[in-house]
Amino acid sequence: MDVREKIKKVAVLGAGDMGHGIAEVCAIAGYEVWMRDIKEEFVERGMARIKESLEKLKVKGKVDNVENVLSRLHPTTDLEEAVKDADLVIEAVPEVMDIKKQVWGEVDKLAKPECIFASNTSSLSITELAKATKREDRFLGLHFFNPVILMRLVEVIRGEKTGDEAVKTCVEFIKSIGKTPVVVRKDVPGFIANRVVAPGMVLLFSILEKGIATPDEIDATMRKIGLPIGPCELADYTGLDINYHVMKYYEETISPDYKPPEFLEKMVNEGQLGKKTGKGLYDWSAGRPQIDLSKATDKVNPMDFSIVEINEACKLVEMGVADPEDIDTALKLGYNRPLGPFELAKSIGAEQIEKRLEELAKMFGKKIFEPTEFIKSGKLKALLEKQG
């Protein structure tokens, strides 16, 4: 059965950054969409942003008829109106477990029994969220990336009790809205894309903490090899508070090695959060920091960031979260990378990766940098040889 026979009405809960983007792509794809938020002003702001985006897409020739798309969008503050008769509910409310659980508890009472529930959480446990409902077999994660209109990746995350039918339907649904689904077979912190890049954040802050190199030396080195933005500038751009909270979450759920360094905690407490406050690792008061590329240094090896990511990708294969091809796809689409971690591993070589991981683990005293069993047992080497 075609997915459009199963899913006719989509409810999106939340009209903020992610919610309005998800509602927009679903409406462009021809679905009837109810977008709900708790206040009229939030709903209106979300609709205004959708209209603005649609006009831009029209100019680019990507949307023919803006009015047609808008006719399929139904803004509301009424939860019952939004989820009644919905075939799929996608929740994009703030990243707080209690708030999300409260919303799902209410939705569970109002939605029809066969409706599928999906959370757009980027970090919280799908298994835990599903417990707020009486339909854990029909509950999963649909993790869209920001900005939704441009980013092709959607991680389809299985909770412990998610049934095959719900996963299959959502994979087809994601394809029908022009996105690329990657199934996350096990509900682990960070899922695939965000999990693989997490150790790179630890490496970056460890280099800064030990005074090995300054932010502009690190960024000049990374920009010299072709990155459009260095990791320190990127941390400032996304917000040091965001980086801090992500590290705290991973410290609790993955390893104590993710504990944020003291200097980062101090900056966050003092409100030096990066671009949004005018000061972080850089001074943003006069606009984007000018990185002097002549400050590139051999004190930092750009390859180290790739090597700790490859190690994490191997851990996901080991845990049965995803296979190498899906991990490569997730990183390329989720982070606009030219190559995925396993494609990169091919050019570095398994022995070199193992040796460098051992050095990094010693240098920084981090267990998360130690080569994983998949590498030590020769499985990575065998995989790379098989791929030719």
Q: How does this model look, in words?
A:
The protein is an alpha/beta fold and 388 residues long. The protein folds into three domains: 3-184, NAD(P)-binding Rossmann-like Domain (Rossmann fold), CATH 3.40.50; 213-295, N-(1-d-carboxylethyl)-l-norvaline Dehydrogenase, domain 2 (Orthogonal Bundle), CATH 1.10.1040; 302-387, N-(1-d-carboxylethyl)-l-norvaline Dehydrogenase, domain 2 (Orthogonal Bundle), CATH 1.10.1040.10. It is 52% helix and 10% strand. The chain has helices at residues 3-6, 17-28, 40-59, 66-71, 79-83, 97-110, 126-130, 164-176, 193-209, 215-224, 231-238, 240-253, 262-269, 302-318, 324-334, 341-348, 350-364, 373-376, 379-387, and strands at 9-13, 32-36, 73-76, 88-91, 116-119, 139-144, 153-158, 180-184. The chain has an eight-stranded mixed sheet. A hairpin with an 8-residue loop joins strand 6 and strand 7. Helix 2 (17-28) packs across helix 3. The longest helix has 20 residues, at 40-59. It is globular and about 60 Å long. The protein starts with a helix and ends with a helix.
Describe the SSE topology:
Layout: H1 3-6, E1 9-13, H2 17-28, E2 32-36, H3 40-59, H4 66-71, E3 73-76, H5 79-83, E4 88-91, H6 97-110, E5 116-119, H7 126-130, E6 139-144, E7 153-158, H8 164-176, E8 180-184, H9 193-209, H10 215-224, H11 231-238, H12 240-253, H13 262-269, H14 302-318, H15 324-334, H16 341-348, H17 350-364, H18 373-376, H19 379-387
Parallel strand pairs: 1-2, 1-4, 2-3, 4-5, 5-6, 7-8
Antiparallel strand pairs: 6-7
